[in-house]
Amino acid sequence: MTPTGASPIAVSALDARSITRWTLASRIAVAVALPLVVAIAFGPAYLSANVIDKLTTLFIYILLAVTWNALAGYGGLISIGQQGFFGLGAYATVRLADAGLTPYPALFVGAGLIALFAYLISFPMLRLRNGELGIGLWVLAELMHLIVNLDSLVQGETGTSLIALNAFSIEARRAYTYWAALGAVAGLIILLFILLRGPVGTAIQAIRDNEEAAASVGVRVKSTRRLIFVVASLGAALAGALWLASATTFQPKAYFGVQWTAYMIFMVLVGGLGTFEGAIVGAVIFFLIEAWFGAFGVWYLIGLGTTALVFALFVPKGLWGLISSKFDLQLLPLGYRVALPSLGRSNR
Amino acid sequence: MADTLMELGARPATGALLQAAGLSKRFGGLQVLSDVEFSLRPGEAVGIVGPNGAGKTTFLSVLVGAHAPSTGSIRFAGEDITALPAPERCRRGLVRTHQIPRPFSGMTIFENVLTAAANGGGLNGAAAGERALAALEASGMLSLSNRKAETLGLLDRKRLELARALATGPSVLLLDEIGGGLTDAEADELVAIIRRVRSRGVAIIWIEHIVHVLLQVAERLICMDGGRIIADGAPEAVMRHPAVIKAYLGGGVQ
């Protein structure tokens, strides 16, 4: 309990090297992940068309899960309106392609424009707190849905399609969409990993845990929240644009539906709210459940709901939270550990 | 120990470091502070006493920017900081602890303190880590570094408040009943830590009900009642002041 006074041990504790971040398991995980991503990138060369389509869907789910987790799990900003940015990402792509931009760059430019929109709208929206914010963003999404419906290009709920994609052969289209999704999800994961591992990560978690205390130790609450909100909205917009590229049709109702946020919540809750790896695990689980049970219609939805309920009640830390605390395992560590000569290694 | 505290020390300064003029705060129809005049020299240690509801915590909150004053102005290190938000005041060297500890419960003790060093302290990378370790050691919490903050008991929560505040590298440390609810032995330990901080030139404003604990550190005492400063000066004189005796024993002032 008491410090060891002026002994040499206490002085050596001040050596910055005694703060560790990577563990053996996490080094192995990254060493395995990098070649794996490279192998996945060459997928179109050796995987069937069906598998490529399925993986594209999985990438989009992971994108949605990691960005919602950053927002809610790390930032404490529970949004139930991310479908608004999802829909706008797709809509911006339709508009840009109609204006003559090549579809694939249009996905990214469109998502970037929606991130800019998210930045501007964050000034009024982030004044809202907790439940107000969640509902407020949902209302905003509904509003965006209605406004997009007014665009004559979209033709109301009839919708339109990304006609410009016809310039590509089906095979090329499939491969490009796959690579765009892989690039987007890898890019967002790396961006979030760097952000959340750095000063922004501790700052945003401090705000989540106690906003006033965070401000009292010098954390700039508003700008930190805004940053996380914009990155999360960029992720949702990219996912919407990519969904459009793989589905080709744009019907507003299918994009601005609240089910998208329900999926995000499901993935993050089951995987582990506020754990970086958990969101990815949750997306994979959701993807598998959908692949195996999606054909069961209503029963599939009932199953999803029940699973979410069981996890919320009995596994509140999610699957990854359970695994990481049981085996003391962290593959993508964001936190810090202080290793002191005077401490046991397993001191937690 | 002494060496590790060095970098937690104050910036050199002359004249009044912190000054409040005509400070008032009203919450709706409730006047909580009325026309408070206050000034603090660099390195000074001031104790604040007063009955419950006297406005002590509100005064502290207004000084650090958690609440905006209704009227009046605050100057710190020669700058008008009245309109400055709390994080910016902290970055300039004005930091508080909370009466009811407010740990970042989802983070480890080290991460709690690191957040303070990296934000309020304006440090990055290894420098922030070293500052955090120094603050943890100064508060006697180093061995708990890897524990989740939600697992702490009351004394350790209070010490965490102190460690976080120290990690920002303050020139004024504002303590809000940090000794409340502790045993005598625990309070003594805390006093020893605060005295060491003070000996490094950090000015201290300390709200505390337990006067004998307070007087081990404070050289000047302020008594507040009904949102006003009713006595300010040497501790013995303030404790004998008729208004102070009336506030504590007579009651009914508000």
Explain what you see:
The complex is a heterodimer of chains A (348) and B (254). Chain A has helices at residues 8-12, 24-41, 43-46, 49-74, 82-98, 103-125, 130-149, 170-197, 199-209, 211-216, 221-247, 252-255, 259-271, 276-293, 298-314, 318-327, and strands at residues 19-20, 160-161, 249-250, 337-338. Chain A is mainly alpha-helical. A two-stranded antiparallel ribbon of chain A has the order 1-4. Chain A has a two-stranded antiparallel sheet with strand order 2-3. Chain A contains 16 helices and 4 strands. In chain A, helix 8 packs antiparallel against helix 11, helix 9 (199-209) packs across helix 11 (221-247) and helix 13 (259-271) crosses helix 14 (276-293). Chain A is globular and about 65 Å long. In chain A, 71% of the residues lie in helices and 2% in strands. Mean pLDDT of chain A is 89; it is low at 1-14 and 343-348. In chain B, helix 4 packs parallel to helix 6 (154-167) and helix 5 crosses helix 6. Chain B contains 10 helices and 10 strands. Chain B has 254 residues and is α/β, with parallel strands linked by helices. Chain B is globular. The termini of chain B are far apart. Chain B has helices at residues 2-6, 56-64, 86-91, 109-119, 125-138, 154-167, 184-199, 211-214, 235-240, 242-250, and strands at residues 18-27, 30-40, 45-49, 71-76, 79-80, 94-96, 172-176, 203-207, 220-225, 228-233.
